[in-house]
Amino acid sequence: MSQKLRIAAICLAAAGWIAPAAAQAVYRCGNSYSQQPCAGGSPVETQDARSASQRAQTTQAAQRDAKAASAMEKDRLKNEAKPAQAYIPAPKEPELAPEDGNLAQPAKARKPALFTAVSPRKPGDTHAKKKKKAKKKKTD
């Protein structure tokens, strides 16, 4: 079953479910609506006041909009399937010195952006010297 037939079948089924709902009484209770009357509530007219030709025009417009939406979706999916075009700049040519034709001197190497501290001692050295000094003082 094609997509269009499925949509048409769903619309017809929805129209069949809506028709019985239109026959029910609806009451406005303040800012809300209910199927049961309430204190101070007023009945609301729910019948479709449009003529048969107006309903047909609305149905045709909905079908036309669904067809346009389907075409737009197909176009979008087609565009999304294409690979993204990337801009890749051409490689730069080395600069030449003005008169002698030699290549310009390369730029000096830069220092690294991150600084790492390095201790000249090993991790156990600091405590060993303090202990030796403490032992010498006790023997004196």
Description:
This protein has 140 residues and is mainly alpha-helical. The chain has a domain at 24-79. It is 46% helix and 7% strand. The chain has three helices and three strands; from the N terminus they run αβββαα. The chain has helices at residues 3-22, 52-81, 125-139; strands at 26-29, 32-34, 42-44. The chain has a three-stranded antiparallel beta sheet, with no helix packed on it. The longest helix has 30 residues, at 52-81. It is elongated and about 105 Å long. The chain starts with a helix and ends with a helix. The model has no long low-confidence stretch (mean pLDDT 78).
Layout: helices, strands, pairs:
Layout: H1 3-22, E1 26-29, E2 32-34, E3 42-44, H2 52-81, H3 125-139
Antiparallel strand pairs: 1-2, 1-3
What is shown here, in short?
The chain is mainly alpha-helical and 140 residues long. It has helices at residues 3-22, 52-81, 125-139; strands at 26-29, 32-34, 42-44.
- The dominant shape is elongated
Amount of beta strand: 5-15%
Q: The biggest beta sheet, please?
A: 3 strands, antiparallel
Q: List the strand order in the largest sheet.
A: 2-1-3
Order of helices and strands: HEEEHH
- Tell how many strands the DSSP assignment holds: 3
Tell me the structural class: mainly alpha
Low-confidence stretches: none
Radius of gyration: 42 Å
Q: Please, how many helices?
A: 3
Mean pLDDT rating: 78
Helix content: 40-55%
* Terminal residue distance: 105 Å
